[in-house]
Amino acid sequence: MINTLYLPELREMLGCDDREGLTEFCTALHPARTADFMSGLTAAEAWRVLAHAEMPLRVEIFGYFDPAEQIEILESQERQEVAAMVAELAPDDRVDLLQEADQAVVDELLPMLPADERADFLRLRAYPEGTAGAVMTTDVAQVSETMTVHGALEELSRLAEDLETIYYIYAVGEGGRLRGVVSARQLVSAMARPGTILADLMETDLTIARPFEDQEQVAHKVARFDLLAIPVVDSDGNLLGIITHDDVMDVVREEATEDAHRIAAVDPLEESYLTTHIFTLSWKRGMWLTILFVGALLTALALAHYEEGFEQYGWLVLFIPLVISSGGNSGSQSATLIITALAVGDVTLRDWAKIVRRELMMGLLLGGFLAMLGVLPALLVTNGDWRKAAVVPITLVLVVVTGALLGSLLPLLFRRLGLDPAMMSNPFVAGIIDILGIVIYMNVALAML
Hints:
- The chain is mainly alpha-helical.
- It folds into three domains: 125 residues, MgtE N-terminal domain-like (MgtE N-terminal fold, Alpha Horseshoe); 103 residues, Roll (CBS-domain); 171 residues, Tetracycline Repressor, domain 2 (Orthogonal Bundle), CATH 1.10.357.
- The chain is built from 23 helices and five strands.
- The strands form two sheets. Strands 1-2-3 form a three-stranded mixed beta sheet.
- A hairpin with a 5-residue loop joins β2 and β3.
- It starts with a helix and ends with a helix.
């Protein structure tokens, strides 16, 4: 609401070319707040406002715009001015931005970038989407391992303005080979001994990422070792770049969003919900709905197969929703737990036997509890006939155990096949259990009655 209220004042300042007011607007607030207040301006208006900020601040404010706004500015404003700002972006942000822009615009902008930035962009763009190389930045605080503390501090003071982060200072040998890391805290603490060589100060037991390593695995490493950044190193040990904690947070958010979509039986969206075309959104939802529709059709066929049994024992129909929902819900619970555990690294494929034992035990406990709840209504419906009523609790135990086992094993099977376990979505698991639930229910009924 406050953003909307501020728009007329911004447009008024633009209309009267209030340079002093616009400069104060750009500098007075945190860049994120400034970007928030600019929400609702056209691309041309936003670009005119940004022109009143110094380049470093302009880049920072621009970084808080929505991706769609960034692309619109990139594609609609004067190329030379836009190229000057793009050249100042962090290397990984530059790649993300230009990869989403129209290729014709990118082809116009690339020759306007300085040679180093252009070569850096082409090198980073070559890494496949979803790998460590695709999210790393080449702005790295690196110094020679033979430098003294005093020399390293002088070098960093010269480079600091161009670096994305200096939490860690990477010590390299000949040819850029990574030899160790010194934290900023260690370096400052060693100022009392300015002649100390970095090689005597640095940590050599490093956690690294490979350029073609999956970004999710890199995120796990950063979380496990509580790192602020992780170096990306090639097979020869040369330092290529780093992945900072903010990029890791983006990766975690992206992977969590994809998993949430798949668990809900929606193909992950490449753009935000509101910017995704309605036909694209319909396709991504519709193809899974079609699969689930086929599953529901198989459930109907299973019911038709036992039509004669239902005619003979009509009361069995009353408990069909109870049976299939109990099995489907237990399967969905197990699938969600295992998919999440796989995502955060709590379990691996080697743990399948432990998982089976735990889910079998859990299925028996939960199935037994639900069976006790189901005995009374079954007795009421069957007029106290224990033999008939026993069909319901026995079925509930078997169905819940089956749901728990399948819900836990199917994500493991998908991981073993090299697929995303989250594709084994809750509705998909529930659809399988529905069919099995009907089969189990009717076979127990026919065996006992």
